[in-house]
Amino acid sequence: MKNIxxxxxxxxxxxxxxxxSLGDGFYMIGFVxxxxxLSGGKGVALGGVLSIYTLGEIxxxxxxxxxxxxxxxxTCSFLLTLYGE
Length: 85
Description:
Keywords: Cell membrane, Membrane, Transmembrane, Transmembrane helix. Helix content is 82%, strand content 0%. It contains three helices and no strands. It has helices at residues 8-39, 43-69, 73-83. Helix 1 runs antiparallel to helix 2. The longest helix is centred in the first third of the chain and has 32 residues, at 8-39.
């Protein structure tokens, strides 16, 4: 069996996903920071904003699931990474 680290496609995909995950983390830090700045440091406001954010992801996840099943997996993965999810 071929060593997975010798597979160029896998290594490039892993590097890309790592960079994307780092970007997502920095985005979330900025999002939380901005929310706290705009709300005057109120934790309740942060909880509300993050709840709405999470509910949106859950709701659109149910809609996107059947659509993703019908689309080319490689194209879908690329577009979702480009979009930021």
